[in-house]
Design a protein that fits this description.
By secondary structure, this protein is of the alpha+beta class. Helix content is 15%, strand content 27%. Strands 3-2-1-4 form a 4-stranded antiparallel beta sheet. Strand 2 and strand 3 form a beta hairpin. The protein starts with 30 loop residues before the first strand and ends in an 11-residue tail after the last helix.
């Protein structure tokens, strides 16, 4: 059988959202509704429970997909969330710069 060229094309992700801020597009949420769970060892786990939009009159409308058992949610601005993610990714990409103590 002859080798035929691969004609399948990769589809772009459907759920990909533009990088516009909520101020540029009123349909984009302005806040993420998060529950921050702290472990016994001090680590933090963030669970996303929904989104919030700031309306023209300054009210905040929320859409929740669930509710944590303790009832506590944090509304974190999307810009801050993006900045924190970028900082975390940048820190993970950098090699560990701690000196090797005790090495000759």
């Amino acid at each position: 059988m002859e080798n035929q060229p691969n004609t399948t094309q990769e589809k772009e992700p459907v759920n990909e959202q533009p990088e516009n801020s909520a101020a540029d597009n009123p349909n984009q949420p302005s806040h993420a509704m998060l529950h921050i769970e702290r472990g016994r060892d001090g680590t933090e786990f963030t669970h996303r429970y929904g989104a919030a939009w700031t309306s023209d009159d300054g009210d905040i409308d929320m859409k929740l997909n669930g509710m944590p058992l303790d009832g506590r949610l944090t509304a974190r601005p999307m810009e801050k969330l993006k900045r924190l993610r970028a900082e975390r990714e940048q820190a993970a990409a950098q090699p560990d710069q701690q000196p090797d103590i005790g090495q000759p």
